[in-house]
C-alpha cells in the first residue's frame, strides 16, 4: 500500500541524528517536525529566519506571527530563536545545516532536482531552494513517485527547469526509499505491501535492485 504524505515524513524522520541542524522545505518536508524519534535532539531551521521550529500548533493555538518558509503557522521550542534572512542564509551558505529535506516535481538519476517551476505557470521565483541545493551536502527529497497521470517523476533526466545539479543523496516516495549513487537509483526499501515490480514499473530512471528489499519500518 502506498504511503501517505504523513508516512513519507515519518520515514524521513528516521534519518535524523542527534544534535543535527535540519532545514525543512515547503510541502511534505514540513511534516517531518512532527515525528522526531525519541532520545534525540534536533534543531529545525526555517529559511525565513527561525531556528528551533517545533511541530504544527494545535488548532486554536496558532500565532499568525510564527510561520515557516511556506507561510504555515508553526511552534517554537524553548530556546528557539528568530533572526533576519541574511543570518539565516549565512547559516545555509556556511554549511552549518547537516540535513536538508525538500519536495520535488522531478529527480534524475544523477541527483538533479527540479522543484520550483512548471513552464507556463506563474511563479514568484526559485526562492531559497537555490541556496539550499548549492550549499547542502545531504539532501533528502520527499515526493510522490508518479504524477497525477501516473507518469514517473523518478527519471533518467529532468524535463523541468533545474533547481540544482547532482545534489540529491536520497529520495523517499510513497512507494520506496531510493539512494542516488553512481548515476543510478538504488532501491533500499519498499512501502508496506508494494512489490519490487510495482516500483520498477513506476520508475523511468535506472533502478538497481540488489537482493531482498525489505519493507519500510516505522
Gist?
The protein is of the alpha/beta class and 218 residues long.
Q: How does this model look, in words?
A:
Belongs to the 3-oxoacid CoA-transferase subunit B family. Keywords: Transferase. Pfam families: CoA_trans. GO terms for molecular function: transferase activity. This is CoA transferase subunit B. There is one protein chain. This protein is α/β, with parallel strands linked by helices and 218 residues long. The chain has one domain (5-208): Glutaconate Coenzyme A-transferase (3-Layer(aba) Sandwich). 14% of the residues lie in helices and 24% in strands. It is built from four helices and 13 strands. The protein has helices at 5-13, 85-93, 129-135, 196-201; strands at 21-24, 43-46, 50-53, 76-82, 99-103, 106-108, 113-114, 139-142, 154-155, 170-172, 176-181, 184-190, 207-208. It has a ten-stranded mixed sheet with strand order 4-3-2-1-5-8-10-11-12-13, with helices on both faces. It has a three-stranded mixed sheet with strand order 7-6-9, with no helix packed on it. The longest helix has 9 residues, at 5-13. It is globular.
Q: Which structural class is indicated by helix and strand composition?
A: alpha/beta
Biggest beta sheet summary: 10 strands, mixed
CATH class: Alpha Beta
Distance between the termini: 14 Å
Cα shape? globular
Number of domains: 1
Residues in β-strands, percent? 15-25%
Q: Element order, helices and strands? A: HEEEEHEEEHEEEEEHE
Task: Please give the CATH architecture.
Answer: 3-Layer(aba) Sandwich
**Percent of residues in helices:** 10-25%
Strand order of the largest sheet: 4-3-2-1-5-8-10-11-12-13
> How many distinct helices?
4
Could you tell me the mean pLDDT?
A: 93
Unreliable stretches: none
CATH superfamily: Glutaconate Coenzyme A-transferase
Number of strands: 13
CATH topology: Glutaconate Coenzyme A-transferase
Indicate the radius of gyration in whole angstroms: 17 Å
